[in-house]
C-alpha cells in the first residue's frame, strides 16, 4: 500500500498543481494577450519581452528569484501572513502555483496573442455597426474566434506545468505529500536507485507527452477544417 501511495501521491499533486495553474494562467494570460495583440502602445513589446523572459532564463535562475520573492524576506512573507499567519510562501502548494504560473506564462500568452491578432479588425467593425460595446465585442466576437489559440494555450500551460522540474524543485523542494510532484519524484527515485518506480512515472509522462502532442495536432486540424 505504501508503494502505491508513493507513486499516486506525486501524480495526484501534479494534476492538482497543473489544473490550478492552468486556470490561473488563463485568467492572467487572456487579458494580457488581448492587450498585447490590440494595443498601440510603443512600450508593449517591452512588456512582451518581460513576459517571455522565463522561456530563455535557466530554470535555476528563475527559480532562485521567485524563491527570494516568496521567502521570508520578500513580499511572499506578507501574503503568507495575511492568508494563514505564515512566514513564507516557499515550500508550499501556493508557492508552487505562483512559480508555475510565472514559468508557464509565455507558453500560454503567445498562442492566445497570435489568435487575437489573427482575428483582425473587420469582425470588430461589424460588431460596432451593430452597436456592440467593446466589452460585448470581446466576449461575443474575440473570444469565440480566438478559441483555438486559447485552447492551445491551456493545453500547453497544463503540459508545461506537469513537466516542470527546475522551478518546482527550487521553490517547493521535494516534500512528500506537500510539494513532491512527478518530476521531482522521478529524480528522487533515480537518486535512491528505485528504477522500477522511476520507470513507471517516467513512462507515464512519455505517454502523457504523446497524448498532448497528438491532441494539439488534432485540434489544429479540426479548427482548420472549420475555417475552410
Describe it for me?
- The protein has 11 helices and no strands.
- It has 228 residues and is mainly α.
- The longest helix has 37 residues, at 2-38.
- It is globular.
- The model has no long low-confidence stretch (mean pLDDT 87).
Characteristics:
228 residues; mainly alpha
Q: What is the alpha-carbon Rg in Å?
A: 20 Å
Estimate percent helicity. Answer: over 70%
**Sheet bearing the most strands, described?**
none
Tally of contiguous helical segments: 11
Distance between the termini: 53 Å
Number of beta strands: 0
Structural shape? globular
Summarize the structure.
This protein has 228 residues and is an all-alpha fold. 81% of the residues lie in helices and 0% in strands.
Amino acid at each position: 500500500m505504501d508503494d502505491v501511495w508513493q507513486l499516486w501521491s506525486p501524480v495526484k499533486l501534479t494534476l492538482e498543481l497543473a489544473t490550478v495553474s492552468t486556470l490561473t494562467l488563463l485568467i492572467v494570460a487572456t487579458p494580457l494577450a488581448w492587450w498585447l495583440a490590440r494595443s498601440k502602445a510603443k512600450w508593449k513589446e517591452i512588456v512582451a519581452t518581460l513576459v517571455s523572459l522565463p522561456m530563455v532564463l535557466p530554470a535555476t535562475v528563475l527559480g532562485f528569484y521567485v524563491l527570494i520573492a516568496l521567502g521570508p524576506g520578500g513580499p511572499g512573507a506578507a501574503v503568507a501572513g495575511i492568508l494563514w499567519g505564515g512566514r513564507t510562501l516557499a515550500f508550499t502548494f501556493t508557492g508552487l502555483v505562483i512559480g508555475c504560473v510565472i514559468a508557464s506564462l509565455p507558453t500560454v500568452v503567445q498562442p492566445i496573442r497570435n489568435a487575437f491578432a489573427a482575428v483582425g479588425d473587420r469582425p470588430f467593425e461589424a460588431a460596432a455597426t451593430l452597436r456592440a460595446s467593446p466589452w460585448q465585442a470581446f466576449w461575443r466576437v474575440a473570444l469565440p474566434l480566438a478559441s483555438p489559440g486559447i485552447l492551445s494555450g491551456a493545453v500547453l500551460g497544463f503540459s508545461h506545468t506537469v513537466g516542470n522540474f527546475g522551478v518546482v524543485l527550487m521553490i517547493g523542494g521535494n516534500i512528500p505529500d506537500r510539494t513532491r510532484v512527478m518530476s521531482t519524484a522521478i529524480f528522487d527515485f533515480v537518486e535512491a536507485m528505485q528504477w522500477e518506480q522511476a520507470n513507471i512515472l517516467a513512462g507515464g509522462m512519455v505517454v502523457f507527452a504523446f497524448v498532448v502532442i497528438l491532441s494539439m495536432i488534432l485540434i489544429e486540424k479540426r479548427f482548420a477544417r472549420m475555417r475552410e
